[in-house]
Amino acid sequence: MDAALDVAALVLVLLGALLCLSAAIGLLRFRDVPTRLHAATKPQVLGLIVICLAIALSLRSWPVVAFLVPVVLIQLATAPLSAHMVGRQAYRNGTIADRNLYVDELAESRQTPPAAGG
Predict the structure, then answer these.
(1) Number of structural domains the chain divides into
(2) Tens digit of pLDDT for each residue in 69-84?
(3) What is the domain extent for residue 66?
């Protein structure tokens, strides 16, 4: 049983490393902000979760699991928030091409500045 759990942990570490590598390659290769945000958040967070699961399987200790749960929860809380903030700032700066947007929910805010009170 221990050997099977070690093999599963090894496979999960390799899978997590591949996901994190694909996120890094996506950050370098993609051209526009929305696709880079996708590469920076989704595969990277999933890779971290898979690696944390592999660590928990490998060490088989409840204190380790108790340490890894907040790490995963903080990552799940901060990655979407930071991606949202970067996306909003890119929209405000005009670095997101309007032709790439299917629905522009912030079009009114572009016409009226936020501090104008309108």
Answers:
(1) 1
(2) 999 999 999 998 999 8
(3) 2-116
